[in-house]
Design goal:
The chain is mainly α and about 300 residues long. It has 14 helices and three strands. A hairpin with a 2-residue loop joins strand 1 and strand 2. Helix 4 packs antiparallel against helix 5 and helix 7 crosses helix 11.
């Protein structure tokens, strides 16, 4: 990205560019996802590039016009699109206010559309078996199988698993542990379930690698097309293909985190245990998460039906 893409090229451009990159760095640290950072970067560049103003010159009508503006499709944006554009711009301004660069957020004057949350999905144990059964025994297939098993058993986010390097896997007695960077950038160490480790070990052997002999910063998910390891986009594409082959609905990688939470609950774990497992900030977050996954049981219908004779 050049300075001109963010703000007009004047004496203040360099300062705004530095603030922009600092915001993206903070966003990456908090979210742990480069895909999120890339999406925010593109959206903010489009906003400021088309507007031709520096951030302190932006008004609420400017933001409103951007959020509700017709895009490349030629159609008016849906509520979910508006609900994505506004938070992006607003979060940038909250960052600038925190840094003392601007004093107001033009988004505060705007009403955000109500965007209904899509119900989360989760695969059953049988569906995960079907998914694993269609993955080929090739080096790439064994790697993808290990990723799916690791996601399903650990409940970690995609970036937390795909970002694992050789140095993140360590033995302590008979147990194997892995270290990942969670939301907010915190380092967390957890036991790696044995089936996940065995799947990783088998996958690395297919690539003629051994985690104990790999360079510390090498990804444990090798790829023939990229020395830095498998990309998130490539795994997403592979997963969608496997789901289709298994006759399962198309889903994103997050479906495996949903599956892990639901399966833990089905196995008898308490909400508190599932909350710790998912690294949720509170039990309320976990309760809502599980309620949407499991549905709300209705224990009163039988008596009502009896009373009305049906």
């Amino acid at each position: 990205m050049t300075t001109a893409q963010l703000v007009p090229f004047d004496e203040s451009a360099v300062a705004w560019e530095q603030a922009f990159y600092a915001f993206l760095a903070e966003k990456e640290r908090r979210s742990g996802s480069w895909r999120t950072v890339d999406a925010y970067s593109r959206m903010l560049q489009r906003f400021f590039g088309a507007l031709g103003k520096t951030p302190e010159q932006v008004t609420a009508p400017d933001v409103f016009a951007f959020a509700h503006g017709i895009g490349a499709s030629g159609r008016r944006p849906a509520a979910i699109t508006i609900g994505t554009r506004l938070p992006c711009v607003s979060s940038f301004y909250r960052f600038l206010m925190g840094m003392g660069i601007v004093s107001t957020n033009p988004c505060d004057q705007l009403e955000r559309p109500h965007v209904p949350s899509a119900p989360p999905k989760g695969l059953t144990a049988e569906e995960i078996k079907r998914l694993l059964a269609v993955i080929p025994g090739t080096p790439g297939g064994l790697r993808d199988r290990a990723i799916i098993i690791t996601l399903a058993l650990t409940g970690r986010r995609r970036s937390e698993v795909l970002g694992l390097e050789a140095r993140d896997i360590a033995r302590s007695g008979a147990a194997i542990f892995y270290t990942y960077r969670g939301k907010g950038g915190k380092q967390v160490k957890r036991e790696l379930p044995q089936p996940a480790y065995l799947a990783i070990e088998a996958a690395l052997q297919a690539w003629e690698k051994n985690v104990d002999q790999m360079p510390a910063n090498e990804s444990i998910w090798p790829s023939s097309s990229r020395t830095g390891g498998l990309t998130s986009g490539s795994f997403y594409s592979n997963l969608r293909r496997y789901l289709g082959t298994a006759g399962l609905p198309p889903s994103g990688v997050h479906v495996l985190r949903h599956s892990a939470a639901k399966l833990r609950r089905d196995a008898g774990e308490t909400v508190e245990e599932v909350s710790r497992f998912l690294d949720h900030s509170s039990l309320a977050v976990t309760s809502g998460y599980l309620r949407r996954l499991e549905g709300l049981a209705d224990r009163g219908w039988q008596e009502v039906a009896n009373r009305i004779g049906i």
